[in-house]
Fold this sequence. Notes:
- This protein has helices at residues 30-46, 62-77, 80-98, 108-120, 125-145, 170-179, 182-194, 198-202, 244-251, 271-285, 292-305, 310-317, 322-325, 333-341, 360-378, and strands at 3-6, 9-16, 19-24, 209-210, 215-218, 221-223, 228-230, 238-241, 349-352, 355-359.
- With 379 residues, the chain is mainly α.
- 26% of the residues are buried.
Amino acid sequence: xxxxxxxxxxxxxxxxxxxxxxxxxxxxxxxxxxxxxxxxxxxxxxxxxxxxxxxxxxxxxxxxxxxxxxxxxxxxxxxxxxxxxxxxxxxxxxxxxxxxxxxxxxxxxxxxxxxxxxxxxxxxxxxxxxxxxxxxxxxxxxxxxxxxxxxxxxxxxxxxxxxxxxxxxxxxxxxxxxxxxxxxxxxxxxxxxxxxxxxxxxxxxxxxxxxxxxxxxxxxxxxxxxxxxxxxxxxxxxxxxxxxxxxxxxxxxxxxxxxxxxxxxxxxxxxxxxxxxxxxxxxxxxxxxxxxxxxxxxxxxxxxxxxxxxxxxxxxxxxxxxxxxxxxxxxxxxxxxxxxxxxxxxxxxxxxxxxxxxxxxxxxxxxxxxxxxxxxxxx
Length: 379
């Protein structure tokens, strides 16, 4: 493949049947450019046109461009699950509203009308935001590919409060583990001590475990629809230290290759089987029904309650921004109280290498008192 960086942008530059094709990649990464070139070559092999110039028409509708955008941008650059999500949002919501309108004539007022319609239909701000995100990316790509002169419309994003988090108390965690058996117990314990997502647990490979450093590299997530391994959410690998319980549990049955958690047929658990297992366990223990993501919330919440800094929790959880991690700040009241008390000189703590060494204010007061007493005795 022939891809190259030109003025901070990745381009594809290749020749087919003595015709040179040189185009800027819609995804500004080397991997994205390589995927884009592969897509273009496939289209040429089928006899399809890849001339973006043919799209340059003021009458090009949003529906017409969306089809092109999905084939040339979404398929090469998004995971299978993300493709399905974007396809559903386009077909069920965006195309019915914007489909017949020329893509270059979609303005801020049109987007506000769409938002108002979504609110009237009872959709949450989170759902509306997800749909606007797809619309925004499609419009930005349209203005770039079609070289439209005006700036794309700015979207005013709906305000939404952080969702309430359901997490287990330490006692509930113990109850859950005491009633779980076999592979289900191993999954529950690993989820509680690593914060891995359900798909990441199912896609965990033995080769991702480092027994020397006692860490796990979260490189994959298992996708049921494609029945294959995909990259984790946010498309980046993270490394999580293993606590002694999880390390010992997995070391006892370690292998060189294959899935760590798999059924009798040798394949990972399905999404349905995972949910069935956790619901059955909840009924056995006798408390509310939870999902696997509750165990992930529990991992982060317990770290916050123990005073672990939010940036460290962010890295362990694999969040793309600290904003997502901030939802756990409210479960660390002692940390917040300590921060406020630092403003009061009477409770200010001096530190040495990060360890409390005494009340600085009281030490100063005692020193002053000793000096006064010494002066009085001398007099």
